[in-house]
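Mods, move this if it's the wrong board.
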Amino acid sequence: MWECKTRAHAFVIIALLASAARASAEPARLNLVWVDPTGIAAHTFDVVGAESRALLAPTGADVTWTEAPRGAVVGPESLVVIAVPTYSTGANRERHVMGSTRMVADAALAVWVFPDQVAWALGLDLERRRSWSKHAERNFAVAVARVATHEVIHALGALGHSAGGLMAARLDHNALTARALRVDLGTVAALRQAFDRGALTADGSWTPSLLRGNPVRAAAELMAVPGPNR
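Not the wrong board. Structure tokens:
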């Protein structure tokens, strides 16, 4: 009888360990939703999704992007990325803020991208977009993706900036359009630790909803460096 109990206990322990291993192996799920209510960054979604997934690949997260139709309701498991024009009298017009995010307790997670400021950093005039070349359009879409991903990383809890790469406090034309732009190892490690903590939850997964309930934190802003001819 004692031997049977011992075997049963061993079986339970093995099952628990196997379950824990599966939980830790399951990648974090990042459901990112693109919202462009004014069409200021129209026709960039495909490039934004592809570039962002490539940038976030080192974190090991399972990243999906969805383009939300107008009026869509977004659930708590998603992180919303909103493309909005800069207010004509807003401070970020003079300071040339390309992206911003704020962590608010018990609120939906969202980050903001200002495509007109991204265009400014590239030396492009968004009001004359119809005259842009295909190369300029491609650069604009890639740059918007990088700004969006920078802010997504902030929203996931990595609040600091790095000395270089995607998470620098200021990005110039070269950084926004280079063939490759890396996320620094410190930021990748911080995100992986956050994902690992999430794997200890009941269902063994990590989603942005785990960040809800955190204290209000100051906004992290990404500044533009003047583009060519500025």
